[in-house]
Amino acid sequence: MKFCPDCAHPLILDIPQGDHLPRHVCRACGTIHYQNPRIIAGCIPVWEDKILICRRAIEPRHGYWTLPAGFMENGEAVEGGAAREAQEEALADVTIGSLITVVNVIKSHQVHMLFRARLNNLNFGVGAESLEVKLIHPSEIPWNDIAFESIRFTLERYIEDQAQGIERLHFHTI
Amino acid sequence: MKFCPDCAHPLILDIPQGDHLPRHVCRACGTIHYQNPRIIAGCIPVWEDKILICRRAIEPRHGYWTLPAGFMENGEAVEGGAAREAQEEALADVTIGSLITVVNVIKSHQVHMLFRARLNNLNFGVGAESLEVKLIHPSEIPWNDIAFESIRFTLERYIEDQAQGIERLHFHTI
Predict the structure, then answer these.
(1) What are the pLDDT digits (tens) for B38-53?
(2) pTM of the prediction?
(3) Residues A126-169: pLDDT tens digits?
(4) Which of A53, A114, A120, B118 could make an S-S bridge to A93, C-beta 3.0–4.6 Å?
């Protein structure tokens, strides 16, 4: 961030009065431009004893397997974002259930929030950002080809909780 | 957002290829500037049967009562942000517990995430953004002077769950 998005003046890094961190400050119009973590919303779509996974058609991690997830948008709820991503990436109609993981991905300035979800029907398909979408039994998860650590963590916790018949919320920081 | 933070060129609103929403796009350097919801992290600090509340010294809602909460920063976890805000606003040393509420505040482009917390000692005080900080019994909550609906929702759910001896996670959209 080099220039003020409001007035185009060059920005400086400065600690505003009463603050404790350096911010991008505009000396021309006075605006302080804060930068904060973004939410990645996603879900595990479940059908009977199977889960829906997607192979990525985009970078990062092109060709690796993931759960439908993506940036939460302004104007929607986290749960709504998770359902929308399932629709976009796997053409999947889901009902969002309980929150299973909150993963802080410090370096990427992201918080990943994944939900359990019910697949409402079998009319899923390959969305624009996917190469392949399939329903698999948890024993068939391609552990060596999982795209992200937050997804691996979520799948592991899902299997553990399923085995115990419980639905917990798990935190993790990467 | 009118000018490109990377190159200062005027931005246009356009739907990028493969996208479905208008974004701030720079025709000069090609950068797409996404805008996404921000996380407000906070907690209910608890000491025996009492909770810690703060009266706001800043706008919005100057003079109204709230729980310690504020924008999550890059480089920290949600739980860490919640603990930091308790320190800043109430000089309170807390141990973060379970997540109690996730509140989507659609118009403000915010997601409020509040945790149960244990106050580690009674050395709390009035932080720079507070007028007053006090430990109260839930029966003393100043319901007519609560700053935000997300805080009211959180306090209500806390009391209900306490009465039942359980710790649930509650979602709400405003």
Answers:
(1) 999 999 999 999 999 9
(2) 0.93
(3) 999 999 999 999 999 999 999 999 999 999 999 999 999 999 99
(4) A120
Q: What is the CATH number of domain A38-173?
A: 3.90.79.10
Nearest to B34, CA basis, from A107, A74, A10, A83 = A74
Q: Is the peptide bond before B60 cis (omega within 30 degrees of 0)?
A: yes
Any bridge partners for residue B146, and if so which? Answer: B65
Cβ separation of A109 and B39 shorter than 8 Å?
no
Q: Which amino acid is at A80?
A: G
Domain positions in chain A: 1-35, 38-173
Which of B56, B78, B95, B166 is the mutation pick for testing A, counting most A CBs within 10 A?
A: B78
Residues in chain A closer than 8 A to B19 (CB atoms):
none
**Cβ–Cβ < 8 Å for B134, B145:** no
- Per the listing, tokens 């999947």 go with A92
Topology given in CATH for the domain delimited by A1-35: Ubiquitin Ligase Nedd4; Chain: W; (2.20.70)
Q: What is the torsion angle, in degrees rounded to the nearest 10, for the CA atoms of residue A114, residue A81, residue A89 and residue A125?
A: 100
What's the helix, strand, coil split of chain B in %, to 5?
A: 20, 40, 40
